[in-house]
Amino acid sequence: MYCAPFNCEPENSRTPGSCWNTAHCVDETSDFNSATAFAQVADYKGDPHTAQYVSKFEPSNAKHANEQLELELVKQPDGKGFGAVVTGTRAIQYGTVTAVMRSGSTAGGVVSSFIIRNDKVGDEIDFEFVGADKATVQSNYYWHNELDYTKMVKSQLLTDTTHEYHAYQIQWTPEQIVWAVDGKTFRTVRRVDTWDPKNKVFKFPDSEAYVSFSIWDGGAGAKGTADWAGGKVNWAAAPFKFAIKNISTNCYFKGNETTYVPPADAKK
């Protein structure tokens, strides 16, 4: 598993060739009631055709159950929570990703996340749920690990995100990022508006990245994080389970998993 491109560090490997090749985006729908949609970390051997998503931790608190993917936050002996991370086995650079899911953040401190991220570069586009607010989902983006939390924008009011399933969508192109829930756009960030005149750079996520889901204990973090998440986790309210029914990916580049071809209507 440590040879997988989303985990592997060539500079810290025995040889530069230890890391498996990156599998690139293909249009697909991952129905988590399917046997090929998800695998445990120990069972994945590097072929994305055998598993579209895999857990990243052992022991794993992610599993196929109730005809969906479930990620659980579990209390540890030290009183803190140990959650789960599930990542896609193909990298994406621009495209539309839509997940039908239900937040596991049923109590303060519990954070559920749906993210497109490049861990090595620090580019990220996300949806995050906090137990302190079950009526909205939060959106944000980061460039090169510059963690500017002031850019967070909440969605429109939704029916309880911890009881109802909604379709959460990220539309990512070289020109803009659009966040939508149930087909309704609530935020758009244009690349042109991210220009930093001092450093002469667009602070816009543009690196190839991986889609992931996670549930984690925000209440055990630093004060700012804990306050944002809704305070310490009330373990009497457990279990905390983040549920994903399916996720569809429509790639911006249209070739195949080894050759990228921009769509016909792409800007030159």
What does this structure look like?
The protein is built from 1 helix and 19 strands. Helix content is 3%, strand content 41%. The model has no long low-confidence stretch (mean pLDDT 92). With 268 residues, it is mainly β. Strands 1, 4, 5, 6, 8, 13, 14, 15 and 19 form a 9-stranded antiparallel beta sheet that branches.
Task: Describe the structure concisely.
The chain is mainly beta and 268 residues long. Helices cover 3% and strands 41% of the residues. The protein is globular.
Secondary structure elements and pairings:
Elements lengths: L27 E4 L6 E2 L13 E3 L6 E4 L2 E8 L5 E2 L1 E5 L6 E8 L7 E9 L4 E8 L2 E10 L10 E2 L11 E7 L3 E6 L2 E7 L4 E2 L4 E2 L7 E8 L5 H7 L10 E12 L17
Parallel strand pairs: 2-3
Antiparallel strand pairs: 1-19, 3-7, 4-5, 5-6, 5-19, 7-18, 8-13, 8-19, 9-10, 9-18, 10-11, 11-12, 13-14, 14-15, 16-17
Helix share bin: under 10%
Q: Mind telling me the C-alpha Rg?
A: 18 Å
SSE pattern, N- to C-terminal: EEEEEEEEEEEEEEEEEEHE
Number of helices: 1
Alpha-carbon distance between the two ends: 38 Å
Beta-strand fraction estimate: 35-45%
Largest sheet: 9 strands, antiparallel
Q: Assembly type of the shown chains?
A: single chain
Structural class, judged by helices and strands? mainly beta
Which stretches of 5+ consecutive residues score pLDDT under 50?
none
Shape: globular
Mean pLDDT: 92
Number of strands: 19
Descriptors:
268 residues; eight-stranded mixed β-sheet; 1 helix; mainly beta; globular; nine-stranded antiparallel β-sheet; 19 strands; 41% strand
